[in-house]
Structures are given as C-alpha cells and as structure tokens.
Amino acid sequence: MTEQIQNGTLTVTDDDFVLAVSEDLETDRNYASQGFWKGVFLRFKNNTRAMIGLYIILLIMLLSIFGPMFSGYGYREIVSVRVDGTDVVAKSLSPQIAGLHKSTGADDVFADKTFLFGTDTLGRDLWTRVWYGARISVMIAFVTIITDMVIGMSYGLISGYFGKTTDAIMQRIVEISNSIPRLVIVGVLATFMPKGVWLVIVALLTTEWIGMSKIARAEMLRIKGLEYIMASRTLGAKNFRIIFSDVLPNTIGPVITQVMFSIPIAIFTEAFLSFVGVGIVLPQCSIGSLIEDGFNNITTLPYQILPPIIVLALLMLAFNFVGDGLREALAPRIEDM
Amino acid sequence: MALVTLLIITFLLFLMVRIMPGNPFPSERMSADAIAKKRAEMGLNDPIFVQFGNYMKNVLLKGSFGKGSSLYNGAPISTVLPQCMANSFKIGGISILLGTLIGLILGIAAALNRGRFWDTFCTVLSIVGVCVPSYVFMIFLQYFLAYKVTIFPFYFDASRFLSSSVIPALSLSLFSMSTVARFTRNEMVEVMDFDYVLLAESKGMYGTKLVTRHILRNALIPIVTVIAPLVVDLLTGALVVEKIYGINGLGKLLVDAISGEGIDYNYVLALGIIYSALYILIMLILDIAYGLLDPRIRLAGKKES
Fold this sequence. Notes:
Chain A is mainly alpha-helical. Helix content of chain A is 61%, strand content 4%.
C-alpha cells in the first residue's frame, strides 16, 4: 500500500492501480460485427470457382497486354526471311518453338523462329494476333458495359423513384425496345453505319442497358420505402441527392453482378458480329474475326482456329464463374453460411 | 397489346431505315436527274407517314415486302421468304424440342442421382454450354462428323433434309439443352426437399408418378421462364449456324443482306419485322404457358380482370 496521507489529503499514484483481468482477453470473433463489403470479400475469397475465374481473367488480361510483346512481332506484321534476294513469307506454319523445333531440311528457313500458335495464311504470328484480338474484344466489352451500366442505372433509378406517369412512360419505352431482337437492331444499324468497332459498340449500347435498368428500378422500388430515405427527405434532401447519393450506393451490388454477366454477352456478341462480317475490319483483329479466319481454313489448317476459341471459351467461363461468385457473396443464403 | 407493340416497332424500324443517312442508289453511276426521277417513282419524296402507310398497306393486304435490290436478282421478297422461313422453322423447332426434352431428361436424371455420374455429366454439360457458342460447337461437329468421318453432309442439302439437319439442330440445341438441364436439376433438388414431397412419399407414392405429378409440376414453372431467353438466343445462334452450314434460312438472308457490299434495305426491314413479330409471339405463348402451368397465376389473373 502506497497511500500517503499528507496534510489530511489523499494522493493517488499510478502504482495504486492494478489490472483487474488478464491482458490476453479473448475478443469474441464469432459475433464480431463485420463491414458488409468485408463480408462480401471474404465470402468471395472462399469461393474456389469464383477465385479460379478471377485468376483466369487476370491471366488473360495480362497476356493480352503483354503477350504481343513476347513474340517480337506486330499484329499486322508479315514475318518473312530474305533468302537469295527474295522474301520467303512464313505462311501457314504449324506451332513451333525455336529450340525444340526439328528442322525439316535446308528450305526450312524459319527453324530458328518461335511461333507458339503458328502463323496464319498471310504469314502473321498467331500468338500476337490472338492476344491483340483478345485485348480488342475485352476492351470493347468493358467500355460498352460500363457505359450501359451508367445509362441503365440512371434510367432505372429515375423511373423507379418518380413512379406514376413518368414510370409508366419510361417502362413502355423499355418494353418496346426490349421486344426488338438485337439482331434486328444490328441489321438496321448496318444499313447506315460503316462496318467496324463502332457498329459493335452502338449495337451493344442500344441493347444491354435494359437489363441493368430493370435491376436498378427493382432495387429503387425496394429501397424507396425505407426509413432512411424518408429521414433524408425530411432533412430537406432534393430528389437528385436522394436518387444518386442515398439510393445508388445501395443498388451497386446487384448491378455489378449484372455487369459480370453482361461482359461475356458483350464479348460473345462482338465475336459473333465479327464472325458474320459486320464487326472488326481487317487488318485489325478480334476474337471473332480470328475464329472466322480459322474457320475459312479449317479443313487444311485446323490448328489455327483453336487458340481464339479457347480464349473465348475461357473468358466466357471465367466471367460466369466470377458473376456467380459475386451473386452468392452479395446475397448469401442461410444454408451457404 | 402485343399488336400495338409490333406496330410501333415496325414504324420505328421503318423510320430508322428511311430517315438515317445513307443512299439507296449507287450515286456514282446515276445522274442527279435519274436519282430524282427514281425517288419520285418509288415514292421516297412523300411524307414519312404516307410512305409508312403505303408500306403497311402492301404488307398487310398484298403480303408483299417490296423487292430486294441485289439478292436473288431482285426477286420480290415475298416469294423468297416462305422457303427461308420453312427451313429456319424446321431446324429451329427441332433444336428447341431436342434441347428442352433432352435437357429435362438429363436434369431429372441428375436430380435423382445426386452426386453420381449423371449429376457430374449435367454439371460439365452446363459449363460447356455456357462457354462454347453454338457456332463454335457447330464448327467442331462439322469438322469431326462431316469432314474427318463423313457421316453427315458438310453443307446443308435440301434433298437430304433429315441427315443434313442433324449437325445444325444439335449445335443449336446445345445451349438450351445445358441451361434447361441445369435449371431442372436445381429446381428439382429444391422441390424434393419440401415437406409435401415427403408426405407423398410416406403415403406410398413413388417412381414416375411422384416425379411427374408432384416434383416436376412445381419445378417446371421457373424452367419456362428460362426458355424465353433461350429462344431468343436461338434466333441469334441460327444466324451464324445457317450462314456456316449454308442453310437457306432467315438468318442467312439477314447476314447476306447486311454483310454484302450493297445493303439491302427492303430485306433488312422485312426481316426486322418478321423477327420482331416472332419474338413477340414467343413471349405471348410463354405467358400463356405460364398460366397453364401455374394455377396460382391463372387465378390471380382472373381476380384482377
């Protein structure tokens, strides 16, 4: 006891206090509160399929950025070797790796070159072209789908928020544009637009926003009646603020899931349009136009079609896995937990 | 309601094709006078509503969609269409039937044998179906079944309809098959856990009767919902499949009309109308099928009206 009584007053020093319980007190982790997004992240991370999908997407993205650099050829460069004063073009070579390739004789002038996927009928390196094409395809998909997300979300939120006549009119418009098949839109667009990237982008822009707007509207209808919106309005928030800063953050989850499912659709549509011949124009290439090239030579050079098809299939698969994973992570059911 | 929608769509399409920039005449080869004369002759100087009225009059009363400019040597579209529609419908119909039937059977087999061979098969099929587009699958089939092993013809041959429709029908049905199989499996697994199934089982019901009367009936409702988008995907898929396999169908017609050098306005318009009409018709049929399958929807609908 260190209590000292001096002149009738009690002075207390730090030494007077002793910790009542041990320091290594266990905090309750089971019921600890956890942020919503942290929970989503953890659930997503525990989902093997979704993580595999994410890794595939990252891998393809990295390859489509850096892949063309590895080969050392340009995507439109025709590989040739000068022999006895004439250029010999590396047309339609099978896949070969420099060190492992067995030379077929003196006329095999490309024995020291590496073509991981072979070359096409004009003598361009397919490895470069496949990753370049993947870059174009993924870029188109991302740009259009993000734009669609912005358009669709604003449309759906506004339509759902104001309700009544506004909603009725806006929903009629959606209904009508929803019953025009995408094919028809592409057909009509092709009558006055030049073929190429922009045709694909506009075709995707005019169709893909509808799904997003439906989801955003449904979310708005659900959230509109909640107390915090009423509180916000009572405090004098304007419509614009309620829609875009109170409601919008809470609708982002389902919309992002929809984005993940729309991207493979966009990639697929691009591939399909390029295949039909209204998409990417030469010498540019995309997954679709590469598949078309491969298809034209399928009976003689069947290996040419495989790389773009595999990349396309992997992309579709990966985005679907990630979409599924996100959906489960955002709205966990009790049995999953 | 459906008809009104169709009319509005037709008008929009008409408007887009007519008003948007672009010239139906190859201007280098025609003098300005000739173009003006041609325009007056074709009624292109009339107000847009009058033009639309004339067009609709022709379509509805005479069944004529005008002439194509270059395809089929400018033959009237209405003579080209029936043959194309017949081809497309036959193959589309076969593949949708094939897809839903096999999909249902696979899904049921997977749900009844959870965790065993059919279940795994169903999962693999659904993954393949999601990530392989129908035309890619078609290229594979064509390569292996018609080129490596010549069981089926490499291109469509109207005189051998049955054997030459196997490859396109199979490839078109892949996607619907896998989706239907996956949905059937998941729905059935969910329904099988309900108490009323247990009750039916405990009353001594088993086998086919239990599956068809009690489980499938309730599982079918969500399945019908997924068939609608499938049919639409089928339209898209048919476009390329017909093009690759050389089938004279609607899809090939549209591809030819838009991918050639000169774009054929009348064909695009006619096909646009037909596709939209088909689409709306399918939606209508599915709405009705919905009511037939689910008495709750039927009753709710009656109460409202």
